[in-house]
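Input/output pair, single chain:
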Amino acid sequence: MTIRKAVWANQFYPSDPSDACAMWEDFFKKCKYPRINASLKALQVPHAGWQYSGQAAAEAFKQLKDSGVQTIVLIGPQHRLAKKYMQVFPEGIWESPLGNLEIDANIAASFIDYNEAFQPDIKAHAAEHSLEVQIPPLIMVLPNVKIVPILTAAYQREHPRILADALAKIVGLQSDIAVLISTDLYHGESYKVCKTTDARTLELVENLDAEGLEQALAQGTAAACGEEAMLALLYASERLSVKKAHLLAAYNSNDITGSKGGYVVGYSAFAFTGV
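Output:
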């Protein structure tokens, strides 16, 4: 069996199980958004170090508890390798300080078989953090869930539509499968531009406006480092029976540090439901 090690422990999050668990218990206690009484189709969470983006992510992961979801399709950006295809982790388990999660090999195979834009690639996941940081909080809320990790490839213009079609066909209206999009928002040197750009991004996502978001991303008036996955989810939203995007949290790294200057990254969390 293939084992994907937790390589970012002690960098993006604690490696000690007690510390990791305590951190998420604290995040969950501080959550402000109420439980949504509607069928959960998808979530969007950030993927920075937990001390920065964990509170936003907790608002989303909290919505998964007792949801009945059995498989999560995890989709995040590939930050480190130049790939021309989407990289699917096909089988095995992912380790974390809070336990392990098993790959849903059947669903993974469905993506690989769907289009040659999806390829099995275990090595591509080895050093990427965008999905690894989601494993411990998933275990906190759904300890027996299976996962399908997929990394997107940048600058492949046709991929969001292909991914959207795959999500519509493979996930569709199944209530026991949900999609989790891993993306941060603006990256740059201006707190003011971050606030303006993130506001536009959030507005378009709330409106489920895939074409508007794609245009704004191209123009630089919106920003998301996991834009391919976010676009795909919005393009597939109607076929996934998504009716509403709930903005659960939005802030940036300068808000956390208290320094309104220097490098800043935007964070958000959304829940996409059928009502």
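The radius of gyration is 17 Å. The longest strand covers residues 264-273.
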